[in-house]
């Protein structure tokens, strides 16, 4: 039998489709692009990435983690440029996978990745709170957050804003409470149930709230023109492409590692998975759609629904295509504050509160990296915030690796023996010199370096200079053993 698990995969594909549908639309609207563009990305994630080797059960599509960055890119460079950004991102991922660099993304500090997602979550929540009230959000992350009190005061005096906020808040409440219902109810994804209920409320009560604008599937596909590629000489565009590549690749491969822990099937081949994501982003860019990543929400739903092979994720792409082709007018019934509520909930789930508390108890340095990365993303921007986090991670690793120990043996008579062991780097140089300079000046010293695994140039030079200074005393030269 060619498809021995078709029944399980068919059922799982319907569940994933129902999870993916509101998220695809919500991410697209929050990214500042037509709703159908999100569906196009989800379709490509199913039909293209779903067919390729790498990770058999994780599902790809537009992700909340890239929403903030995509919105900034569209505002800065225009919708016509989005396809170029995504296309080049895909080509870079293909190249990195071919060069077998996929496994190296596993070496990125988990604290940096979680800090990145936390920063994205904070900005996403703040921005979508404005959308939930029917207001335009400020441009920068810090302005989004600091402007919230004033926006709340303004919304309190507007009937339309209060209606909009009520629908958004109701959507979040439904999603939070849905998981507390009996299992038979939870067979319907909470996000879909929340959107359907919000849509029914707006149809029955007809409140003054904005709804999704529909322009049709074919009308939303806008392949990038040749003139748009000339913008690749812009340093800002290059930085955006690198940010897309780093974040999409890291999120996909970390998702793959998480999904592998949920099932006993074949393990992820990271280089092939990176190439699969690259192929998906290349096709998505050619269609002028959103960047994609593997999405843990859809992937975990796929595993929980009993999927056994990649057929489930391919079929979910088929269902998205049929919906976009046959029922696009249904999108026009969805109130925008309901989608904002879905993204607020998604943003909250990006903030790893439990991880922060655990790290603070066990590894405060890692907790600090997580928090600084998140705050930097909010205060500066996505790309520079991630770079700050990576730089801190490298510095911390170098600091941890440069453990050095100085043991001083003084028997009261004869020379004092100072034995250095470990890794002597410039990061520990002040501590080493303070200890050596505290030794008595009127006693001979023997400096034993044989226990060092590594001695960098800065430390060697400093030790030689100290030995030369100490040798000028009346007790004779310092004896160094290497």
From TrEMBL:
First-listed, main subcellular location of the protein, grouped into a coarse class: membrane
Transmembrane segments: 76-95, 107-130, 161-178, 185-205, 237-259, 318-348, 368-395
Cellular component per GO, a single term: membrane
SLC26A/SulP transporter domain boundaries: 6-373
Membrane protein topology class: Multi-pass membrane protein
Transmembrane recorded as keyword: yes
Annotated InterPro entries: SLC26A/SulP_dom (IPR011547), SLC26A/SulP_fam (IPR001902)
Localization (cell): Membrane
Keyword list, A-Z: Membrane, Transmembrane, Transmembrane helix
Example GO biological process: transmembrane transport
Protein name as annotated: Sulfate transporter
Taxonomic source organism: Streptomyces minutiscleroticus
